[in-house]
Amino acid sequence: MASSEAPFQLKDLLTPATIRLHVAASDPGQVIREAGQLLLASGAIEERYIEAMQQALQTYGPYMVIVPGVALLHARPSDGVKRPCISLLTLEPPVPFGNEDNDPVKIAIAFGAVDRQKHLQALTMLTQLLANEQALSAIQASTSAEEVMHIIAAASPA
Questions:
Q1: Among 94, 90, 103, 78, which Cα is nearest to 38's?
Q2: Which tens digits make up the pLDDT trace of 90-144?
Q3: For a FRET experiment, which of 9, 54, 60, 151 has its CA 20 to 30 Å from that of 3?
């Protein structure tokens, strides 16, 4: 898989400024808004991307809760993504999204990609992280954004 551009890594897209720990949210809509605000504040998305993530949840239901305790929040690249980005929230208390197999959500990850290829690249990286139960437990127990960054860097393939 040769490419003129080096693939970006999860640790390149997530920054301490796009991580918030122990967020108290009353419902899935507030989780999406909190995660989206971090991306908006970083300049990576437009406000309408947050609304598109909200709409995706309303339209398609809680499919975004893809593994036990983790929601992967996203919308289409055309919904206002300016550059590839990821935010991460740990939720305390966990928030039910309505997914009977994977609720409640303890970690919410919002991501935006600028095109289909980058979208799939981001999903691949996130899937690798989501398959690492030890890393997810460590993230959930983290007390600082820097600690989360260290866990992700250690869990990411070289």
A1: 90
A2: 999 999 999 999 999 999 999 898 877 766 776 777 788 888 899 999 999 999 9
A3: 151
87 vs 73: CA distance, rounded Å = 9
Number of helices (H) and strands (E) in the chain: give both, helices first. 6, 5
Can the peptide bond before residue 93 be classed as cis, meaning omega within 30 degrees of 0?
A: yes
> How many domains is the chain partitioned into structurally?
1
- DSSP E strand stretches across 1-158: 19-23, 65-67, 70-73, 85-95, 105-112
Structural domain span for residue 112: 10-155
**74 is a catalytic site residue:** yes
Measured at the CA of 135, the angle between CA 129 and CA 136, to 5 degrees, comes to: 80
Provide the token pair at 78: 């055309």
Helix or strand holding residue 59 (H, E): helix 47-60
CA–CA gap between residue 143 and residue 92 (Å, rounded): 12
pLDDT at 41 over 90: yes
Q: Dmax of the chain from CA atoms?
A: 45
Which CATH number belongs to the domain containing residue 59 in this structure? 3.40.930.10
